[in-house]
Amino acid sequence: MSSRLAGPIWTIVAVAHDTGGAQAIAPVISKLRRRTDLRVIVIAGGFAQKVFARFRPENSLAEWPESKIDDFLDRTRADLLLSATSWKSALEQGFRNRARLRGIPSVVVIDFWSAYRQRWQHATYRFEDAPDQVCVMDRQTAQAINQEGYPMTQIHVTGHPHLERCYQREDRHPPASVAKREIAVLLLTIPLASLGVKEDPAVQIQTICKAAGQLHAKMGQPVSLTIRQHPHENPQPDLMARIREFMPPGVTVRLDDRTKPILGRLKKNDLVLGYSTMGLFEARSLGKQAIAIKLGDHPRELVQAMTAAGIPLVPLDSDHIADWLCHTRREEPNHTANPHRGATAEIAGLCCDLVRKGYKRGSPQPKIQKSHAETLLGNVSHRDAGVAKTREERTG
């Protein structure tokens, strides 16, 4: 994909609201902005504003009603919409709805292995008839979205741009030496309601604290447990006071400042625990040992992705968690290969294909080559290596 020094200038509008979605499309925005024949305008809402700060996004504090979106798309003469997906915001879907009415092609990047149909809950068109070209992390996710009704012709197996970038970091941080005086454990939580769990968050934390106490007893070292709550969680003002009531000997607990980047916290800890969160995959990309705690049913494709990344799924039981903590504590760093290599180039290439293939404002969306999901799933003998080969062929 070579840049042109002269020629028509195409405009891509990129939109995201949540942190995960913004991280997923940020590498693609950076790659597209290196082209001289493209301009990429960024719209940031909610937590995405911090991720997109370096892109100087449009003022996103104001509301975006349909009339404002219409005016913006017409004024910028957008040729393509690149967007993430959010559960609690209609920002991205609002842009997709209005882009569809104008015949503007749409590329959507899925950032996690769950709740696919819910990501289109504000759509003015049927999920089964969606025109958006959807980029997913792996073949299993493509199958899962298709089983929920999304047309396979619109799904592309590309990999995850944010995780690709995580694995590309040179500063891999393996667990500290076993001789270190203190064992640092990081717990990544998410809103329990998103997992269908209605219990008090302190119930799970009490079990994990008990496991940390067992780790201290078995290893003979003090344990520091840092709890980092998800940005969407509503913090309970008395949570720390309640935790101190059941904190076992040899264990100290603190709440992390969740406004600071998670990367720094991941680097400082030896072991990472979490529910179904992207932070576990980020930890593995740094060479950290990570454990997922099972609180409810997990999509099969998420479990498969965790297994591929070397993340065991452990029940919420102090004995099981303590056993795994002790086991991973004694293990040498286990770096996994980058399963998302080529994701950014793949999605950027798809975007460029859509704006270059004879698109004219008001015309039907251009037809593109058979989606990678269609190609791969049409032949069940394909393995993940086949996915990587397909990406190389497209971007080479």
Architecture overview:
There is one protein chain. This protein has 396 residues and is an alpha/beta fold. It folds into two domains: 213 residues, Glycogen Phosphorylase B (Rossmann fold, 3-Layer(aba) Sandwich), CATH 3.40.50.2000; 158 residues, Glycogen Phosphorylase B (Rossmann fold), CATH 3.40.50. 39% of the residues lie in helices and 15% in strands. The chain contains 15 helices and twelve strands. The strands form two sheets. Strands 2-1-3-4-5-6 form a six-stranded parallel sheet, with helices on both faces. Strands 9-8-7-10-11-12 form a six-stranded parallel sheet, sandwiched between helices. Strand 10, helix 10 and strand 11 form a beta-alpha-beta unit. Helix 1 packs across helix 13 and helix 3 crosses helix 4. The chain starts with 9 loop residues before the first strand and ends with a helix.
